[in-house]
TrEMBL record:
InterPro entries: Depp_CoAkinase, P-loop_NTPase. GO terms for biological process: coenzyme A biosynthetic process. GO terms for cellular component: cytoplasm. It comes from the Bacteria. It comes from Hyphococcus luteus. It catalyses: 3'-dephospho-CoA + ATP = ADP + CoA + H(+). This is Dephospho-CoA kinase. Its main location: cytoplasm.
């Protein structure tokens, strides 16, 4: 099974492009969605988060807005949170890969926001970054409910700059275009990867 790592900064279009890969037949997994599942009632992260940040757990689930308020802008708190969450996300990712392999998928695309920050590119046959102009990114993110300029800036600070990600990736998908144009680029990149890595 070919492993493709998809990344990009906040609001650049990772989830949207991941869905396009799914439409083209790839098995797909999204790290942010895995985090959100871990925070739901009964989720594996809840007891650990409750111990570290008791005020952010309500009715047995992590309140993400409260957690964001508590940790963003506080480097130590972010480190503590990541130390809890990342190993659990890793387990979820491995379970996905095993299931996709078992199901006979030709390729798996994994949406990993911190792929280059955590030097994970070695686990993938190919890496892709989604990228759009900074003003497009900012407008998209600020249009989301519960988002503020401060929260956007605090998250951006935790991420490698877009220009650096573009240099590291094997493929760049432009998401500052129409959805159809972006879909065309996804189609082309996927065909190229399948051609390069499918064993004869
Ligand atoms: C900070 C939290 C509470 C904000 O939750 P919220 O629902 O408001 O936003 P969401 O999860 O959709 O994330 C918004 C954007 O921030 C990015 N982001 C989130 N955490 C981080 C981080 N630690 N470093 C860099 N970027 C991050 C996401 O990839 C996404 O682009 C939440 O993202 C979280 O618990 N993060 C820690 C876990 C983590 O490291 N996730 C990143 C990928 S595994
Ligand atoms: N050409 C395009 N490609 C991708 N997304 C686009 C495009 N045009 C408009 N959009 C919109 O931009 C938004 C991108 O959001 P999306 O959730 O996919 O980004 P993300 O990188 O996954 O965000 P986050 O980092 O917060 O998880 C969506 O609302 C999408 O519809």
């Amino acid at each position: 099974m070919i492993r493709i790592g998809l990344t990009g900064s906040i609001g650049m279009g990772k989830s949207t492009v991941l869905d396009m890969f799914a439409d083209f037949g790839a098995a797909t997994w999204n790290a942010d969605d895995a985090v959100h599942r871990l925070y739901e009632k009964g989720g594996a992260a809840v007891p650990f988060i409750e111990k570290a940040f008791p005020e952010v757990v309500k009715d047995g689930a992590v309140d993400r807005a409260e957690l964001a308020k508590r940790v963003l802008g506080d480097a130590e708190a972010v480190k503590k949170l990541e130390a809890i969450v990342h190993p659990l996300v890793g387990e979820d990712r491995e379970a996905f890969l095993n299931a996709a392999e078992k199901a006979g998928a030709d390729a798996a695309v994994l949406d990993i926001p911190l792929l280059f920050e955590n030097a994970s590119e070695k686990f993938f046959d190919a890496t892709i970054v989604v990228s759009a102009p900074a003003d497009v990114q900012k407008n998209r993110v600020l249009a989301r409910p519960g988002m503020s300029e401060e929260k956007f800036e605090a998250i951006l600070k935790l991420q490698m700059p877009d220009a650096e990600k573009r240099q590291k990736a094997d493929y760049i998908i432009d998401t500052g275009l129409t959805l159809d144009e972006t879909r065309g680029q996804v189609d082309a990149a996927y065909a190229d990867i399948l051609r390069k890595f499918t064993k004869a």
